[in-house]
Amino acid sequence: MRPQLSAALTILVVVTAACGGGDSGNATSAPDDPGGTSSKEASENSSAQDSGAVEGGQINGPIVSLLSPDLGLYAIDRMTAEVRELTMDGVEFTSRREQPILIGESAFILTATTIEGQSYSHEVGIGKIDLATGEGVEFVQLGTDRETDEDTDSADFELIGGAGMTVWVTRGSFAEPDEVTYLSFDSSTGAAGSDFKSLPYEVTTDDGTTCTGSVRDEIVLSDGTLAGLSNGWPATLDAMTGEIEPLVEWCGFDAEINLSDLLAPEEVNEYAVTETGDPIPLDRAPDVLRIVEPKVSNGTYVEGDGSLWWIFSSFGVHWDSESPSASLGGIVEFDLATNSILNIWPLGDDTVTYETEDEGIASVSNLSQADLRFLDGRLWIMDLRDDAPLRVLDPAAGTLASFDIARGDDVDFTTATLVNSDPESIWLDVSRSTITSEEGEPESSLGISFLDQFDPTSDTFTSSIKLLSITGF
Predict the structure, then answer these.
(1) 35-88 pLDDT, tens digit each
(2) What are the tens digits of pLDDT across the range 315-364?
(3) Fewer CB within a 10 Å sphere, N or C end of the chain?
(4) CB 419 within 8 A of CB 427
C-alpha cells in the first residue's frame, strides 16, 4: 500500500467564551464565570436531586454516569440543560470508568451490584437505556468481577461498542493480562452470541520475516465489524473465531509505511515543530519523513464517513547528530474501502510545546493523547493536555478550527474529555482547577468538574453545568 494523496489544510483559531452564546435559549453561565450556575439551572438541578427520579420520557441529550452513592445515571436535555435522574431496577450503580455508548436508539453501560456479604465484589452486567422512553434495564448479566473480597484474581469487563443488533464486551483477568475473551450479545434480547479468546497474530513473509503480535484498543464499526489495532495499525477480528486480519500489511522488509510515502519534502515543516523554532532544512526533509510512521497514537481512533480517523504524533526526531529535536504530528483519514491512507492533515504548531529554562529544554509536551469523535462530517479532537482547546477538522473545507475553553475566575488551568452519548451535540467533561501548593512544594491542585455543551451548528459553547449541582457533593 502506497498512498498518493496529501490534503492541504488551513488552520483557523477561534477563541470563544466557554459558556457564551446564550441566544439559543439554553441555560448558560456568564462568559466570565464558566464555573457558575444560573439560578434557573441551579433550581432545576436541585429539584432533580431532591426528588430522586423525575418524570420519564424521551432523552434529548447526553446520558452521563457520575460518582454518586446511588445509581449515578443522569440524562441532560440539550436545549434546556435540565437534568433528570434515571433508574434501573436491581442495579446498584453504573460504571464510572466509561461513559455510556450509543447503539441505534439506545445507550448502553456496564452495571455493578455488590454481592451480598461482600464490600468490593460485584455482579456485573450490561444496562440499556431506551432513548425514546428513558427507561433503563439491566438486560445482560456478565458474571462477577470476583467471587469474594478475599480473591486475589479479578475479572475486568469492558464495553467496547456495538452496531445493528449486536453489542460487544471484553473480559480480561488480572492473573492473565494477555488473554482476553470477546463476548457478543443481542442488543434487543440479551441473548448470548460469540464467545472466543484472543488469538496471537503471527505471519511469515516471502522474505523470511516473521512478525507476531496481538490486537488491542478494539472498537465496533458501523457495519458490525470488530476492529482493533495490530502494531499500531488497523486490523479486523473474525466475529466467530477471533482470527486477526491486518488492514495494513506492516510485516516484511519493504512493508513499512512512513511519511515519505505521503508527503513531498517541501511539506515537512507544515507537520514539524523543532525545539529551536527553526524549520527543518529542505535537503534533510527526506531523512526526517522516512523516520516517522503515521500510526495511531495512544490507541485512539474513530470511524466516520467510511473511513477511520486518528492522530499521529512523533517527537525526539533528529536528522543528524547535531540537529535539534523535532516533533511531527498530523491527522490521518484511512479509507476502509481500499484499506489505504486517503488523506493527512497537519496538526499545526500545537503539535508540541517545548518548555525552556536557562539550561535549555526543561520539558516537552506533545499532542498524542486525545479523545476523538466524528460528527456531522467533521472530526472533533479534545487534546487531553492542560489548557488545551477543542479542535475540529472539516475535511471538506480543509480547515482545522480551535475553540478555547474559558477558565473562569480564580482558575489556573483546565482539562477536558469528550462525552459522546448525545447523537447531535458535543459535550465536554471539564475540570477547572486551582493550584493549591505553596511555593517550593510539589504541585497540587483542586479541580471542580463541569459538563460543558458545544453546539456544532453555531460552533459556540452554549451551556455549563456544575456536576456538584447534580450529585450534591
Answers:
(1) 444 333 433 443 344 434 445 799 999 999 998 888 999 999 999 999 999 999
(2) 889 988 888 889 999 999 999 999 999 999 999 887 888 877 666 665 78
(3) C
(4) yes
Distance between CA atoms of 76 and 81, rounded to whole angstroms? 6
Q: Are strands 106-114 and 101-103 parallel, antiparallel or unpaired?
A: antiparallel
Residue 248 has which C-alpha cell?
495494513
* pTM summary value: 0.89
Question: Mind listing the pLDDT tens digit for each residue in 251-284?
Answer: 876 778 999 999 999 999 999 999 888 999 999 9
Count of beta carbons in the 10 Å neighbourhood of residue 127: 26
Distance CA 99, CA 66 (A): 9
The answer to whether residue 12 scores a pLDDT higher than 60 is no
373: its cell numbers:
469523535
The DSSP bridge pattern shows strands 122-130 and 106-114 to be antiparallel
Gap between the Cα atoms of 408 and 32, Å rounded: 6
Cα 75 from chain centroid? Answer: 20
- Between the two ends of the chain, the Cα-to-Cα distance in Å is 54
Q: Is 265 helix (H, G, I), strand (E, B) or coil?
A: helix
- Which strands form 216-220's sheet, in the order they lie side by side? 216-220, 226-230, 233-237, 244-246
C-alpha separations of 450 from 39, 55, 117, 390, 469 in Å:
16, 24, 36, 15, 9
CA distance 450 to 433: 11
Q: Mean pLDDT, to the nearest integer, of 415-425?
A: 96
d(CA 260, CA 291): 8
- Measured CA to CA, the distance from residue 92 to residue 121 in angstroms comes to 12
Q: Return mean pLDDT, the chain.
A: 87
3-class SS at 202? Answer: strand
Cα 243 to its chain centre, rounded Å, is: 26
Residue 154 scores a pLDDT above 50: yes
Q: Exposure of 167 by Cβ count < 10 A (0-12 exposed, 13-18 middle, 19+ buried)?
A: buried
Tell me the three cell numbers of residue 387: 489548557
Alpha-carbon separation of residue 234 from 261, 297, 300, 310, 398 (angstroms):
18, 12, 11, 11, 24
